[in-house]
Design goal:
Chain lengths: ~210, ~210
């Protein structure tokens, strides 16, 4: 086999030569390349501005989500023990109060026995029929009812306070965990604010000079 | 400084390949380094002149690869499309020295894309017939049609060899194919083409 077919050296291959001449008419005819004009400067800048804005919005949204999540977790930590206390208040509150007036009554008259119960404490008639003792018990009941109401009112107001301020019910004092969460939240918000300010400055700078700092 | 050097090298490369004459081709490594520098210049500075030099050096290859796959009348526009696409996507090329094989791949994909888009609107045979009517030499078109009927492996090297006037080593170097494969494909393709031409001539004789 002739080398002419491979690298055009050696004796010419007749068929190859004829094909070259015949097909050479279809060869590439040089033609100038038509490349598009480069984008004008302001168009390129508008691309940059668009992407900067999109980035700034995405960063702000992300930080807001993080802050929201941190706030939610902090609230949940603060509310849960109180909710538990308000949802199951009766046994503890009502078992604590009766012994006080039972004790008072027993000081007046050992024969009076009051059964503490949720709605209607049963009053047994004294064996010796002492009226004063019965009156004492009734008075003490009257005293007890408002106090019971007061006790029940307190958690509701605390709940309100928690809902409004997101702080602990324990005298407005924050626990260590709450304080830590609050600090983290404040830090995240400060960071988000600084980031947004920086992006805003960059965008303004690019808009004015056409060149980021 | 290097631009002058690059331009000089490339002009020598282009002039040595341009006429399809027997001038010795530069070594593959020299071409690679020149191409790599040109590609870098285009990527770094958007150097349009450097890309123009790459275009001059590779237009024949792109033309030949397209001619093996699409109608003659469409080839010139597609060559422009391929280089335009390459110019836009040059940043995606990892190895600047592999510009040739990368461009060849883009060209083949563009040809496939052309057929995908035109399949619904026109028949392939009609397209080739129309192309044949448009070109001046009917005989050349007949032979081109015969080459296109050959297996795909042989089409590309035969067209680059006979239509574009490239040598075997040059085809291998530009397309990134192994020289041994190109050599085998040229010889086997030539053998098949001879058979087809003979058959075709005999068929014409019978018609007369």
């Amino acid at each position: 086999m002739s080398d002419y077919l491979w690298d055009k050296t050696g004796g010419p291959d007749e068929d190859a030569k004829r094909l070259e001449e015949l097909l050479g008419n279809l060869a590439y005819q040089p033609r100038p390349l038509e490349l598009p004009e480069p984008l004008p400067r302001h168009a390129r800048m508008s691309h940059l501005l668009t992407w900067t804005r999109v980035g700034a919005i995405a960063a702000a949204l992300l930080l807001m989500l993080l802050a929201g999540a941190a706030l939610m977790s902090m609230r949940r930590q603060a509310v849960t023990p109180e909710q538990q206390a308000t949802q199951q208040p009766s046994p503890q509150l009502q078992t604590e109060t009766p012994p006080r007036y039972i004790a008072e009554a027993s000081q007046e008259d050992d024969d009076v026995a009051i059964q503490p119960s949720n709605d209607s404490p049963e009053i047994k008639q004294p064996r010796n029929g002492s009226r004063s003792t019965v009156r004492q018990v009734a008075l003490s009941r009257q005293r007890r009812q408002p106090s019971k109401r007061r006790v029940n009112e307190k958690p509701a107001s605390v709940n309100q306070e928690i809902a409004l301020n997101g702080v602990s019910s324990q005298g407005g004092e924050l626990t260590d965990e709450e304080r830590q969460a609050k600090d983290q939240l404040m830090l995240a918000l400060r960071f988000a604010s600084a980031n947004l300010r920086y992006v805003q400055e960059q965008v303004r700078e690019v808009g004015m000079t056409g060149k980021p700092r | 400084m290097y631009e002058v050097e690059v331009t000089g090298d490339l002009l020598r490369i282009v002039s040595s390949n341009g006429g399809g004459q027997t001038a010795p081709a530069p070594s593959a490594s020299a071409v690679d380094s020149v191409e790599a520098r040109l590609v870098e210049a285009v990527r770094r500075d958007g150097d349009r002149e450097a890309f123009g030099q790459l275009y001059n050096a590779y237009a024949r290859m792109v033309h030949g690869i397209l001619l093996a796959r699409v109608p003659y009348a469409e080839v010139d526009d597609l060559v422009q499309d391929v280089f335009l696409h390459a110019f836009k996507k040059l940043g995606a090329l990892r190895d600047p020295a592999a510009f040739g094989p990368w461009l060849a791949m883009i060209t083949r994909n563009r040809a496939m894309d052309f057929h995908r888009r035109t399949r619904d609107t026109m028949e392939l045979t009609d397209t080739f017939a129309a192309a044949a009517r448009m070109t001046p030499q009917a005989e050349a078109n007949e032979v081109l049609a015969l080459i296109r009927e050959l297996p795909e492996t042989y089409r590309e090297p035969l067209i680059l060899r006979f239509v574009e006037g490239m040598t075997g080593p040059e085809i291998a170097e530009r397309t990134g194919l192994a020289p041994a494969s190109v050599r085998v494909n040229i010889h086997r393709g030539m053998k098949l083409l001879r058979e087809r031409i003979t058959q075709s001539g005999a068929a014409k004789e019978r018609k007369r």
